[in-house]
Design a protein that fits this description.
By secondary structure, this protein is mainly alpha-helical. The protein is built from seven helices and five strands, in the order H-H-H-H-E-E-H-H-H-E-E-E. The longest helix has 34 residues. Bound molecules: iron/sulfur cluster.
């Protein structure tokens, strides 16, 4: 029994602790890295940078303040303030939806896209020390960890469209969203979506 418990601690708990510490340390280093001013727009707070990263990757079903709030897991007020700062700095623009004027749509400006394209020095140096296969393996592994954390916290997956179970593949290499019944370009299938339903998930997505 004692041997079994030591074995379990060594093989399951310890590696999990180690992984936690690694992720936590990496997160801290990256947060401090992005807070330094190297983009010509003044230092960005982590939430501001995260909102920019989200808007660079999200699709047209997901570019609203409500979706940013859900993705960042922050309060509505904090996100509203964050988006306000980004808009004043000329990194994000807000416009009314063409069909439903009550809905506000968000998009990066060219300056916002330039900020997102720049990675911090610490991150660039770290990646230079790895080869492409190591980076791909680490990316896949960490995606699994994130998916597990999302399942555990019962939050939306915000996954990429190409592995959503509502994505329809049509003749001629065309794609269609089964939720809103609209065509999607290949580029759009690489975007993240608030309504994404993982292929292995049984529940229906929330339309709200
Ligand atoms: S197929 Fe899924 S991920 Fe793609 S746009 Fe539709 S709901 Fe979103």
């Amino acid at each position: 029994m004692l041997v079994e418990s030591i074995w379990l601690r060594y093989h399951l708990v310890m590696p999990a602790d180690r992984l936690y510490r690694v992720i936590e340390r990496l997160g801290y280093l990256l947060r401090t890295d992005i807070q330094r001013d190297r983009d010509g727009h003044g230092a960005l707070q982590p939430a501001q940078r995260a909102a920019l990263e989200y808007l660079a990757r999200c699709n047209r079903l997901s570019n609203t303040p409500a979706a940013v709030t859900e993705f960042l897991q922050l309060t509505k007020g904090t996100v509203s303030q964050t988006l306000g700062v980004l808009a004043r700095r000329g990194l994000v623009e807000k416009r009314r939806d063409g069909t439903d004027r009550r809905v506000v749509r968000l998009a990066l400006t060219p300056a916002g896209r330039r900020v997102v394209a720049v990675r911090g020095r610490i991150w660039r140096r770290a990646c230079e020390a790895l080869d492409a296969k190591q980076i791909a393996r680490a990316g896949a592994l960490l995606e699994d960890v994130v998916r597990g954390a999302q399942r555990a916290s019962a939050t939306r997956s915000f996954g990429e469209c190409h592995d959503c179970r509502m994505l329809g593949r049509e003749r001629g290499g065309r794609y269609r969203c089964g939720l809103v019944d609209e065509p999607l370009s290949v580029a759009e299938t690489r975007k993240i979506c608030r309504q994404h339903a993982p292929l292995n998930r049984k529940s229906r997505p929330n339309r709200g």
